[in-house]
Design a protein that fits this description.
It is an enzyme of class 2 (transferase). By secondary structure, this protein is α/β, with parallel strands linked by helices. The chain is built from 15 helices and 12 strands. The chain has 2 domains: 150 residues, Nucleotidyltransferase, domain 5 (2-Layer Sandwich); 179 residues, ATPase, nucleotide binding domain (Nucleotidyltransferase, domain 5), CATH 3.30.420.40. Bound molecules: adenosine-5'-diphosphate.
Length: 390
């Protein structure tokens, strides 16, 4: 290795129709480049940016599937960083099963194990694993590191890890895994850095993006999550309903004759904000829409979140801080204001000016509960894990 080579780690986050990448130096938090291949398929698009946010020219290339998209991204990055020397590749993997509480170096045995969890997360795990296989083929000999969305939650007390089903189901892996762990890991670390006193206490983090969940932490460790066996439970989301009576699903099967595939499509793609509004899964669009159905969808989102906040505070025995993060949590002052307005009884309040300015601390002086707005950075958590393992 010569001194002028760009030694870096690559992060990959392979979703069902997207591939997010980050290129990070061996030290420091700022990415050298970030990229997104979106709508992978015939209409795929690729955007790449450098550390200043300026566009990196994306080479014309195949975006018809994940492997092709990765090759096109790598070719574009190689044109911009001709001396790139990859030390490791870090991958977001949705499911690490019951035992992985930390990132792990990818081996053939690990890949085999992770493939066994695909039935637990059929819409995500297969894409994550094909991302790993594509990177192994592109960079033979470069260490690959798997970072699990479930890992942060592995220390849940038993009552928050199980369902009240016959015990054999828990033994077979039917458990409350919890997700969004990379985001929560990042927020826990940042909070410990900026406010160790708060981080040591009872903290509820609301990750509100297209997928949404809340996590209750004590001393920086996850105690409970609104997401459980799958990323369907808890809050209403862009296209997922959140909490639902299982009796509804039995009814849909028995009386409406819906198959498992049809119910899966209903729950993952047609419900939540999209289903309620009949318009969009996108909070920005709903806030701008001005229709009754859009207003009701937002009202449901807020009400569900408030109920889950109460539940999480009960699980923690109180609450010292509430952190908003994710696309909605970081950017929507109206949603934060509405959530806080209804939670005064719990000591949660937002200062209107601080909230409108997206200040880091939005609770009023002397409030019982600190309310913060913190941007999350899942890619950085992956990059740090990849750096740490090489
Ligand atoms: P993902 O879960 O796919 O990573 P994000 O964390 O980017 O998604 O969050 C996407 C959500 O954030 C969308 O509902 C989007 O409308 C919402 N969002 C982003 N910016 C704003 C904004 N300024 N106001 C309201 N909602 C916003």
């Amino acid at each position: 290795m010569t001194a002028d080579r760009t030694r870096a780690v690559l992060t990959l986050n392979a979703g069902s129709s997207s591939l997010k990448v980050g290129l990070f130096p061996m030290q420091g938090d700022a990415a050298l480049a970030t990229g997104l291949a979106d709508r992978i398929g015939p209409d795929g698009t690729l955007t790449l940016k450098d550390a200043t946010g300026a566009a990196i020219p994306a080479l014309a290339g195949d975006l018809s599937n994940h492997e092709a998209a990765l090759a096109t991204i790598l070719a574009s990055l190689a044109a911009r960083f001709p001396d790139l020397d990859l030390a490791a590749v870090g991958h977001r993997v949705v499911h690490g099963g019951p035992d992985h509480a930390a990132p792990a170096r990818v081996t053939p045995a690990l890949l085999e194990e992770l493939a066994r969890y695909a039935p637990f997360a059929p819409l995500h795990q297969p894409h994550n694993l094909s991302g790993i296989r594509a990177a192994m083929a592109a960079f033979p000999g470069v260490p690959q590191v798997a970072c699990f969305d479930t890992a942060f939650h592995r220390g849940h007390p038993w009552v928050n890890d199980t369902y009240a089903l016959p015990r054999r189901f828990h033994d077979k892996g039917v458990r409350r895994y919890g997700f969004h762990g990379l985001s929560y890991d990042y927020i826990a670390g940042e909070l410990a850095r900026i406010s160790p006193g708060l981080a040591a206490g009872r903290v509820v983090v609301a990750h509100l993006g297209n997928g949404a969940s809340i996590c209750g932490m004590m001393g920086g460790r996850s105690i409970a999550s609104t997401m459980g066996f799958s990323p369907l439970d808890g809050l209403a989301m862009g296209t997922r309903p959140g909490q639902i009576d299982p009796g509804v699903l039995l009814y849909l099967m028995d009386q409406e004759g819906m198959s498992a595939g049809q119910i899966s499509d209903l729950l993952y793609r047609q419900s939540g904000l999209l289903g309620l509004s009949g318009l969009s899964n996108d909070m920005r669009r709903l806030e701008a829409a001005g229709t009754d159905a859009a207003a009701e969808a937002i009202a449901y989102f807020v009400a569900r979140l408030q109920r889950e906040l109460g539940s999480m505070a009960a699980a923690l025995g109180g609450i010292d801080a509430l952190v908003f993060t994710g696309g909605i949590g970081e950017n929507s002052a109206p949603i934060r204001a509405r959530v806080c307005e209804g939670m005064g009884w719990m000591g949660i309040a937002a200062d209107a000016a601080c909230n409108a300015a997206h200040a880091r601390m939005i609770s009023p002086e002397g409030a019982a509960v600190a309310v913060l707005v913190m941007p999350t950075n899942e890619e950085l958590v992956i990059a740090r894990a990849a750096r740490a393992l090489v």
